[in-house]
Give the backbone structure.
Amino acid sequence: MYLRHSRIRKDGKTHTYWRLVRSVRRGGKVMQETVAQLGELDAEGRAKARALARTITGRDEQLELFEDAAHDAPPVAVRLQEVRLERGRNFGDVWLGWTLWRALKLDTLCAELLPEGREAVPWSVMAAVLIIARLCEPSSELHIAEDWFRRTALEDLLTLPAEAVNEQRLYRALDELLPHKRAIESHLKQRLGELFALEYDLLLYDVTSTYFEGLAEGNALAARGYSRDHRPDCKQVCIALVVTREGMPLGYEVFAGNRVDVTTVEEIVETMEARFGLAQRVWVMDRGMVSADNLTWLQASGRRYLIGAARSEVRKWSRQLAEERDWQTVRDGVEAKLCQGPDGTETFLLCRSRERREKERGMHARFATHIETALAAMGRRLARAKRPLDRSALERQIGRLLERNQRAAARYQIRLEEAPETPAGLRLVWEAQAEWDEWARHSEGSYVLRTNVTDWTPELLWQTYVQLTEAEAAFRIHKSELGLRPIWHQKSERVQAHILVCFLGYVLWKTLEQWQKRAGLGQSPRTILDELARIQSSDVVLPLADGSGRELRIRCVVRPDKAQTLLLDRLGLRLPERLRIPARIAKM
């Protein structure tokens, strides 16, 4: 990663704008990718970043860990030819994860929920290991114990010897953490609201699934169902997640793997309201949550909602879609129109997108070409046949063809007619329906939203609904960045604890994302973590030249390069130069 700059002359002044770029290989080419726009890097911007850092962490420095420079220390003579480095550790990423852990006050919360007992290592400290590892390098508990922990500086940050971190102790920490799920969620709602001035007037709700490796016979929730991971051969569980409009998590629940999405709505809404109180919130859900029972329940209970309507609703509004009046532009390439529902209790928002229309039109054309090519081939086969063909076999072939190309299947009328004058005894007759083409012309790129919120503009309704991408992004981060899938645990409680650790890892992720976003560093926490992971801590060993055989050991943090310095400066963080060697570790 390195710096690039561009100069722009404006109002008689020359402005230099900096950005961080990195080289990435895509296929056989090496391309430059912008990591963050740093602007002019002025003093005022740096001051704001430092103020933001103090707001987030609540601490100016961690003096209990970092050595102050000893300006008045007497000089000592050392054997230069014997000076060496030992104990290199990854420092930057775990230090940032530990900073986020303390920023959310999860260290104090876990200490309260998991008070010290007879265990050799406090469970609150082991919980920190699990969740920081999930953020920095998602892996199994065995990998954490045998490899990852000893390669990081968490030993110094948590005052925890590497020898004390083992697989069984990590498993026990999972068991100890799980019973406090609700208390942790309540704490995070309050703390995240304080840090980022979050409002919980609008909640986004979605469901995903994650699959098991193994039989999962001891887990009552493990079952086969609709797999978002395209693994119908594996058992799975479903996870329902509730986030704010910014994607900040509020809570989650785990359901059986064969649970249908629409059956979770009432339970989730009541659970969240019982946990966090009743309020005039707006619940935003996609069309997979729509059912007549759900809508009736939401309306009868006075809850406000904005839901994507089923595809069948588009045909009900065909006349309004065809009319060119009353459309409003809500974004470049997207138009919307408000229509009152038939019973007056709901408002329907008709939307049409130019990009989506082009995409669907291309899909219809592709599927139509597949169907027509296959039908033409079948017609030629019938014409060349030397003996009668099985009608039922041909009908099954047509059925499979239409099933593979469902998006254009309704366009065609296809039939097999008796033809005694031909050797095959059958004739294939098909035609495209002009009515379908006319309907597609109006419906391609169109979709419908339904709501009982009456005082919002079409633009606000549409912008609110598309924020569901935050919930979808949350699932992608859970699975791709935090290692939620697949689940290797077989015990039911361990599965629940694994999901909780991934959820808490996501909380740290989103905290960092909001932090870097407000500091002008984009929205890619993994880039920040990967770059800071290159910053290491090491022991500088200085053999004394006084003939005593003694050695002076100084635990130092490698100085960041220019790009890393800029990242830290924008975040308002000061990297320590020296670490205090914990007494309990120094004696080992």
Remarks:
- Residues 60-65, 584-588 have pLDDT under 50 and may be disordered.
- The longest helix spans residues 354-384.
- Residues 356-443 form one domain.
- DSSP finds 22 helices and 18 strands in the chain.
